[in-house]
Automatic annotation (TrEMBL):
Organism listed in the record: Amphritea balenae
Keyword Transcription regulation attached: yes
Recorded GO MF terms: carbohydrate derivative binding; DNA binding; DNA-binding transcription factor activity
Gene3D superfamilies (UniProt xref): Glucose-6-phosphate isomerase like protein, domain 1 (3.40.50.10490), Winged helix-like DNA-binding domain superfamily/Winged helix DNA-binding domain (1.10.10.10)
Biological process terms in GO annotation: carbohydrate derivative metabolic process
Domain spans labelled HTH rpiR-type: 4-80
Name of protein: SIS domain-containing protein
Keywords: DNA-binding, Transcription, Transcription regulation
Occurrences of domain SIS (ranges): 124-263
InterPro entries linked to this entry: Homeodomain-like_sf, HTH_RpiR, RpiR-like, RpiR-like_SIS, SIS_dom, SIS_dom_sf, WH-like_DNA-bd_sf
Length: 293
């Protein structure tokens, strides 16, 4: 169990714990910084349970005992001390909300990095590398992520198209075959039009890769589900970091596909680089005009 995920793991496991163990879970979730300085007798007293209950709680989370649990909790808090979720208020200065937004985004990226399953990523990379045609579906803030992915996979000689219009997604869905792949991207995993399109392609035997939260309709529909679980301020939709994390995951997939396709791709990428030179202004600076006398 990764230290950065410990508090989330406790919250997720809480419903499966005994009632007395849930008291321990509640206290730890509310007071993690205090728990790392406690003895087992102190935690038992604060949670109003017995010391054996604390031990059972730790073992239910796959730790050898309280000391092992406390060490992991301390490491997690130390690693994540500066990257907690933020909330804004009207009195925040530019310097303050800049710091909050960057710290929250970095923290989210670190958490997702720890949670991403390598086997799932490898399955997605293999599917993309061997596809005949790659289509990307997303709405709202997920649409530019699809556009970015289209650009990246085009560079890798993969026929890719991105659609953020429901009608175009329907048309795309009806033309795909079992040799094709769809990447569906969603911050919620619950967008109705997106789910409808994905159901169509699944019925056609198309491999669907999802980038969305776990335990959502889209994750359940996908052939390969890459879980992006973030706890964000729902009232600050313009500041959510889901889009940034999705972009990084697309980078991971693109690098994986490039490695899968082998060194022969390098010459192709060099050709692209040379062809783009003509679109860029050279480094020569225009001489400054002398001011008129």
């Amino acid at each position: 169990m990764q230290s950065l995920n410990l508090l989330k793991s406790i919250a997720d496991a809480k419903s499966n714990l005994r009632k007395s163990e849930q008291k321990v879970a509640d206290y730890v979730l509310e007071n993690p910084s205090d728990v790392i300085h406690m003895r087992i007798v102190d935690l038992a007293s604060e949670a109003n349970v017995s010391e054996p209950t604390v031990v059972r709680f730790c073992r239910a989370l796959n730790y050898d005992g309280f000391q092992d649990f406390k060490l992991t909790l301390a490491q997690g808090l130390a690693s994540n001390a500066n990257f907690e979720q933020f909330s804004l208020n009207s009195k925040d200065t530019v310097s303050e909300f800049k710091q909050k937004i960057f710290d929250s985004t970095v923290g989210n990226m670190m958490r997702v990095r720890e949670e991403l399953d390598s086997d799932t990523l490898e399955a997605a990379i293999n599917a993309i590398a061997s596809t005949n045609r790659l289509e990307l579906y997303g709405f709202g803030a997920s649409a530019p992520v699809c556009d970015d992915a289209q650009h990246k996979f085009h560079r890798l000689k993969i026929a890719a198209s991105a659609y953020s219009d429901p009608h175009m997604q329907m048309i795309s869905a009806t033309t795909l075959t079992e040799t094709d792949v769809v990447i569906a991207i969603s911050q919620t995993g619950r967008t109705k039009d997106l789910l409808h399109a994905v159901k169509l392609v699944k019925d056609a035997g198309v491999t669907v890769i999802s980038l969305c939260p776990s335990n959502t309709p889209l994750a359940d529909l996908a052939s390969i589900s890459i879980h992006i679980d973030l706890e964000e301020d729902k009232d600050l939709s313009t500041l959510m970091s889901s889009r940034v994390v999705h972009l990084v995951v697309i980078d991971v997939l693109a690098v994986g596909v490039a490695m899968k396709l082998g060194p022969g791709l390098l010459d192709h990428l060099k050709t692209i680089k040379r062809s783009l030179k003509s679109l860029r202004q050279n480094d020569k600076r225009l001489p400054l005009r002398k001011p008129a006398d």
